[in-house]
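lol ok so funny story. i was supposed to be doing the assay writeup but got distracted and ended up predicting the structure for this chain instead. priorities right. anyway since i did it might as well share w the group, maybe its usefull for someone
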Amino acid sequence: MVPENDKKNLLTLARVTLEACVEASQTPSLEAMSIILNSFLQEPRGVFVTLYVTGEKEKTLRGCIGTILPVQPLYQAVINNTIAAALHDPRFSPVTEEELPSIVLEINILTLPKKVASYEEIRLGHDGIIFHLRNRQSVFLPAVPIEFGWSLSQTLSQLALKAGLFTNAWQAQEAWFEIFQSEVIQEKF
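and the output, tada:
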């Protein structure tokens, strides 16, 4: 569980980073944000940062970039993935200053992935899924299948497509899966 104070710090970190990278092409200093790095924020963690554009009653994906494995301290991963989601997600053009007021941030802090013996062990909505086949892989955060209303087989087909493979590639004998869980921290919209 992420301590309540750290949730606020992480959202502040992501918001200030988003605004600084879009408005001034800069990365703000931690001192400028008045964030004190405690042991939790310095712990290496896998993390995804997702940007949504909000409408009256819905939100639309605007960017999402993350790291599955804990290769950086949490605070640094949030900074780097916020910048990447805003400026370098290949599915979208870079975020503009005009969009900033309508963007809502979501941070997913991940557990370590673990291999499962069969895709049948995957619990939709609870587990994030990493699909592997030969030299290809793709990932969905736990909320993705729920947002789209997909069954397990539909989710696995979409993972195969995301990996650049045929929809039934997940059924290949050499395909394998890892799962992880995620704690979601998000701004209100």
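The helical segments are 4-24, 30-33, 39-42, 74-87, 143-148, 152-162. The CA atoms of residues 8 and 185 lie 9 Å apart.
back to the writeup now i swear
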